[in-house]
Amino acid sequence: MFTYPKEYEVIVVGAGHAGVEAALAAARIGCQTLLLTTNVDTIGQMSCNPAIGGSAKGHLVREIDALGGEMGRNTDLTGLQFRVLNRSKGPAIRATRVQCDKKAYQFRLKWVCERQANLDVKQGQTVSIEAENQVVKAVATATGVRYTGKTVIITTGTFLHGLMHIGKDKQHGGRSGEAPSIGLSESLRILGIELRRLKTGTPPRLLKRSIDFSRLEAQGGDTPIPYFSQWPLEEFHVEQTGNCEAQISFPRGSVLEQIGGQLNCYLTKTTARTKEIVRDNLHLSPMYSGEIEGVGPRYCPSIEDKMVKFAEKETHQIFLEPEGVATDEIYINGLSTCLPFEVQIQLVRSVVGCENAEIIRPAYAVEYDYSPPTQILPTLETKACEGLFLAGQINGTSGYEEAAAQGLMAGINAARKCQGKPLIVLGRNQAYIGVLIDDLVNLGTNEPYRMFTSRSEFRLLLRHDNADTRLSAIGHEIGLLPSRHFSLFTAKRDQIDAEVRRLESTRVGRDTLAQMLRRPEVSYEQLPDQNRFLSMPVKESVEIEIKYEGYITRQLIEVGRAEKTNGKTVPDQFDYMSVTGLSREARQKLSTIRPLTLGQASRISGVSPADIGLLAVWIKRFPTRAKSQESAGDCFSGCNNPSQDAEQ
User: Fold this and answer.
1) With contact defined as beta carbons under 8 Å apart, do 98 and 228 qualify?
2) pLDDT > 50? residue 205
């Protein structure tokens, strides 16, 4: 075994969406970082639909961007079509979705990683993790190379013991045409980490020229373009001079600049014939024949699941979406399946407009190992092995955005652990990232977890438009968000505050401008005395702050109440088994999950309010100088002034 002659502070295994964000975050914070992947040509590859964002997922992307991550910026530069979903509904659930050029997205991420200071990118399949006294020390590859590091982040996606299914045919792999990671599963088990199986799938890809688009409904992008990144003027040099797309200077070096505008997606539907084909061939599906053991995603079902679970529906919506400007592959969104290839041909040709369609790549399902996430701390560090972090689909999530959010937090925390600084835990009232990780750690999951706005009890505070207000101060304080971006944020924040004050104090007749704006039928643009020099994002935030002031104030009061009760720290050495009066279920789950605070304990399934009240009394009796409270700041919950916590 050859030991590479450089010791790293952070080693990231896997270069998907979680791995890229983890590696970039750790390197940008200042740690010597290694990004280790089986194939450097697939860094940031979009294995399924090349789309970023959507309901709640778009919120995650904005939060990643606000903290200083890469996903939003990369999406803006490689997007083909930009749309705001739920525009007609309340501000809490509006979100951006972008259809990307999958190869441009992938190649740009590879380019960013290769040029990042403090980051080495190397090709090699990781087969084992070395630890001493349950403290991580190194990783080893299949070619006999050993890399030493202070921390290791595992982001294996669907590759951990991956098995693909097309009908009765099986092939080992984590993605079509790529080998799985086999030895790593056993290495994790040796460290004491339990693994289970999940399943996901993907639809066929079609040849564009074989589709009759004249029979389909075209869907264009939005104008002005709703970019993800909150720093577009500096980063992209965008000059919007009107509402017509032809008058917009697109981001410099972007796909939009290359093609001169947005591409259409298309809406179609299944038919009665589709339903008949599925019904007649259901016994050939590995999902229904018992071949697949893993649990599939509830909210992204296969066409077999749709036809079985929604048998009363005669048709289902299908979207045809471009995969890039340099390819004629079309993604048929809504037709995921693992039926045999010959049946897939029938299925595709039963869809309106696809009667003569040719399949370039067949659909398939993939099973893979994952680690039930109750085995990790809210920092994403494993409880079984110090210095070992898990992020992405290995924690039971689905989607690029959920993976990237975890990768970012794992990279931040691994780097800060190496630097001896407090680790970051975002609260449920601060970010959807906080909701995501809190749900995973406390509730676990036995099916692929997907983020929804309904998962947040404070979703009016966690809006798409105010991600920078919530998180940019944290990103800047920890050294991830550049000072030039933080200056843009503070300028925007000051503009919002000043305009809200002006509207509250300026009268037109008997009413203030703020009173006029609170009327449901009045928008900022309809005010008789508006500041026309403000940007659209500033105007949007001002309007939301004033229109929803009462609701926002109410949620802030709820947050304050919850923090008083739930912010109490639970000592790491606390013995739950010794607490008289706790139910057996509460003792077992609290001892397994080991919550950091009473708030976290209260969200564990099976722990009652009475149990929390009892714990609060017992914790007061526990010695205050517990081991966890003496370690590097333990964690600070990402507040607006993290330096204060660090000094404490």
Assistant:
1) yes
2) yes
Tokens at 382, concatenated: 């494993």
Q: How many residues does the chain have?
A: 648
Strand order in the sheet with 169-172: 169-172, 163-166, 364-370, 196-202
The answer to whether the CB of 161 falls within 8 A of the CB of 170 is no
Helices (H) and strands (E) in the chain, counts: 23, 27
**C-alpha–C-alpha distance, residues 214 and 268, integer Å:** 11
pLDDT beyond 60 at 320: yes
Cα(133)–Cα(648) distance, integer angstroms: 30
Q: What is the DSSP string of 172-219?
A: E-SBTTB--B-HHHHHHHHTT---EEEEEEE--EEEGGGS-GGGSEEE
Q: Which helix (H) or strand (E) holds 432?
A: helix 432-443
Q: With beta carbons less than 8 A apart as the criterion, state whether 196 and 434 touch.
A: no
d(CA 501, CA 493): 13
The arithmetic mean of pLDDT across residues 260-279, rounded, is 96
pLDDT (tens digit per residue) in 435-477 = 999 999 998 998 999 999 988 888 899 999 999 999 999 999 9
Please report the pLDDT score of residue 641 as a whole number. Answer: 39
**φ/ψ (deg, to 5) at 614:** -65, -40
Going by C-beta distance under 8 Å and a sequence separation of 6 or more, which residues neighbour residue 262? 80, 81, 82, 220, 221, 225, 245, 256
Shortest CA distance to 366 belongs to which of 292, 455, 423, 434?
292
Asked if 442 contacts 593 with a C-beta cutoff of 8 angstroms, the reply is yes
Q: Which of 321, 343, 448, 435 is nearest to 395 (CA)?
A: 448
* Contact partners, residue 334, CB within 8 Å, separation at least 6: 203, 303, 316, 317, 318, 319
Q: What is the pLDDT of residues 43-52, one digit of tens each?
A: 999 999 999 9
What is the distance between the alpha carbons of residues 434 and 596, in angstroms, rounded to a whole number? 14
Residue type, 10: V
Mean pLDDT for the chain overall: 90
What pLDDT, on a 0 to 100 scale, did the predictor assign at position 646?
Answer: 33
pLDDT band at 631 (very low <50, low <70, confident <90, very high): very low
**In this predicted model, what pLDDT tens digit does every residue of 19-71 receive, in sequence order?**
999 999 999 999 999 999 999 999 999 999 999 999 999 999 999 999 999 99
From 359, 363, 364, 353, select the one nearest 328 (Cα to Cα). Answer: 359
- State how far the Cα of 27 lies from the Cα of 32, in Å rounded to an integer: 6
Instruction: Give, in order, the Cα–Cα distances in Å from 501 to each of 276, 356, 512.
Output: 62, 61, 11
Given pLDDT bands bounded at 50, 70 and 90, which one contains residue 243? Answer: very low
Q: Which single residue is written with the structure tokens 């279920």?
A: 585
Q: What are phi and psi of 570, to 5 degrees?
A: -100, 120
**Cis-peptide into 301, omega within 30 deg:** no
- CA of 144: how far to CAs of 7, 32, 141, 580, in Å? 16, 22, 5, 53
pTM of the model: 0.89
Neighbours of 521 (CB within 10 A): 5
- 156: phi then psi, degrees, rounded to nearest 5: -85, -5
CA torsion through residues 294, 299, 302, 307, sign:
positive
- Tokens matching residue 526: 């309809």
Residue 565 has what pLDDT?
65
The H-or-E segment that residue 585 falls in is: helix 584-593
d(CA 91, CA 539): 13
Name the burial class of residue 457, with classes exposed (0-12), middle (13-18) and buried (19+) by CB atoms within 10 angstroms of its CB.
middle
Q: State the Cα–Cα distance between residues 448 and 330, nearest whole angstrom.
A: 25
What is the number of alpha carbons within 13 Å of residue 163 lying toward its C-beta?
15
Select from 612, 591, 592 the least CA-distant residue to 601.
612
